[in-house]
Design brief:
Layout: E1 2-6, H1 13-19, H2 22-30, E2 35-39, E3 53-54, E4 57-62, H3 69-74, E5 77-80, H4 84-92, E6 97-100, H5 110-119, E7 124-126, H6 131-137, H7 151-161
Parallel strand pairs: 1-2, 1-5, 2-4, 5-6, 6-7
Antiparallel strand pairs: 3-4
Length: 162
């Protein structure tokens, strides 16, 4: 199983740091993850060679790519920041999505967007502190598919939030 973690273009080191902890990696391994791709954005986190494999999880990390769609398509589930682009793309691809709200950016629309999408049953959301608890209990089969005809409605909602 593949997991893709994305922070977009911002700095969100606390998410990458949490993902790279032994307890988090162990939970991912127990969930069946064997390949983990980290897109670390503007942060200063770079995993060392000794972290390229953790108990059977192959780990790949990069800061940026021109297009992350391939990584999103290849993933069985995505953990990402609450940026509108990340959320829209994951929903269009019908990928299970755990949104981790960057509390350092709380002056923006990210929390409102995450709450709304979660209220409608399309994503799960949390903060960095509670990520491990959610990963242990999340049931992706509870998510409702996002119907493509709702894209216009979502775009209007995002416009209202920004």
């Amino acid at each position: 199983m593949r997991c893709f973690v994305t922070v977009g273009t911002t700095k969100f080191d606390s998410l990458i740091n949490k993902i790279m902890t032994e307890p988090c990696l162990e939970i991912l391994r127990q969930r069946g993850v064997s390949y983990l791709v980290l897109q670390s954005g503007a942060g200063i986190i770079h995993i060392g060679d000794n972290k390229r494999n953790f108990n059977g999880i192959q780990i790949e990390q990069y800061c940026y790519k021109d297009d992350i769609k391939f990584d999103m398509e290849a993933a069985d589930f995505i953990i990402g920041h609450a940026g509108a682009g990340t959320c829209l793309e994951a929903l269009k691809l019908r990928k299970p999505l755990i949104v981790v709200v960057n509390e350092d950016l709380m002056g923006n629309h990210q929390l409102e967007l995450a709450e709304r999408l979660a209220d409608e049953g399309h994503i799960f959301y949390t903060n960095v502190t509670n990520l491990l608890n959610l990963l242990q209990t999340v049931n992706f089969s509870e998510l409702k598919p996002f119907v493509p005809c709702d894209m216009h409605r979502l775009a209007k909602f995002i416009d209202k939030c920004t």
